[in-house]
Amino acid sequence: MIRKVLRGLRHRFNDERRGVKLIFSDLLQNWLAAGVACPKKIRPALYRLAGNKIGKQCHLSPRMFLGPGPGKLIVGGGVFINYNCWFDLGDDIIIGEKCNIAMNVHFINGTHEISGEDRRAGRGITGKIIVGSGSWIGADTIIMPGVTIGKGVIVGTGSLVTSNLGDNAIYLGRPARLYKKL
After folding, report:
1. Selection from 55, 64, 59, 148 nearest residue 106 by Cα
2. Among residues 11, 59, 106, 112, which one is catalytic?
3. Residue 112: active-site member
């Protein structure tokens, strides 16, 4: 009986600690670092402090939103991320070196299985998103779970990326389709 009580207390303590960590992470990432008043040289350090991996010489614009999921944002050196980008973080999001991410790009790596008619959104599932080095993601693009975008890829403005994209090419549309090899 005493062991059961101790296990319950330990579980509750761990839940509370996770809750405090989540609140701290949210305040650090989505209030301080994402704020327009945060100096651009301090912003990467704040994201690193929250457990993300941010390379050297990155430009991270204000108003980035990082979700509360268990994933991490991993950004290579020399990356430019414009205003209002949204990172779900249900799983890791990995952005290679020297990439450009335009404004309002959404990296969504959480979704649901299709379930019965009483509730269509079934069990939650996640998938890692990878963007290869040298790629350029156009404004208002949505990138879905489990997608890998190759090296040197251009994704046109307003595209919906639902499947893997090969290296050195331009992709456009909803869903994104090959437009031209580079």
Report:
1. 64
2. 112
3. yes
